[in-house]
User: Fold this.
Amino acid sequence: MNNRLRLLRAERGWSQAELAGRIDVSRQAVNAIETGKHDPSLSLAFRIAREFRLPIEQVFDGGEA
Amino acid sequence: MLPRKEDKMNSPETNTNPSLSGEDRLRRRRRRILAVWIVTIGAGFLGGIALGLAAGGALSLSPLFFWAGLALLAVGAVASSLWFMRRVDEVEVFDNLWASFAGLLAHMLISAGWVAAAARGLAPAPDVLSVLLATLVITVIAYAGLKLRRRLG
Assistant:
């Protein structure tokens, strides 16, 4: 699954730790999602999209990484 | 969307103060997870010592107390594992499950292989403690390998 996490995070000037704290996961989890090593569950994906105030399809798409 | 009750095994959303920065919330989260680790490992350590003393005969327990203690230990192990899994994020749950799978596979292969070898006179009779120790070592190596891969990745 592709995602725009790194780009969206950079636009807001957030570190991985900042995003991790906001969505209540570890920094390693944010890194794993960004690098495509972990596909988040639906509830976590919605939580990430909500944090960026974007629809989920603007953060994630179903294509293979 | 608020997480429903059944989502708790998938990165539970805990109450963190939204007025704090994400990095401060992450620091609090780290402290919380560290406390969970210390309690879980501490409980396992104390349980293991108690079981070791009972098995070695150092603790003189009546059979009723022995079985009651063992049941308490089993309930405690299940409860603390569930408590831990519900407080960590889904990547941690994922790593724990893979490491547990590696440990289970190793346990089955070592046990079956050793029994088969002993039956043919190629090895001494299987030793339960050695199998348990090998299982534990392989589980820890698998977990450490996953964590190292995440850190390097």
